[in-house]
Amino acid sequence: MESFALVLVYLVIGALLRRLPQFPQDTGLVLNQYVLFVALPALVLQKIPLLEFSSQLWLPAITPWVLLLIVAGLVILAGKIWHWEKTTVGALLVVLPLGNTSFLGFPMVEAFFGDQALPYAMIYDQAGSFVALATYSTILAAWYNPNATTPSAAHIVKRVLTFPSFVALALALALKPWTYPQFFSLVLDNLAATLVPVIMVAVGFQFRLQLDKKEAKPLIFALGVKLFLMPLLALGFLSLFQPDPLLLQVVVFEAAMPPMVSAGAIAVGAGLAIRLVPALVGLGLLLSFISLPFWYGLLQFYV
Question: What is the pTM of this model?
Answer without folding.
Answer: 0.79
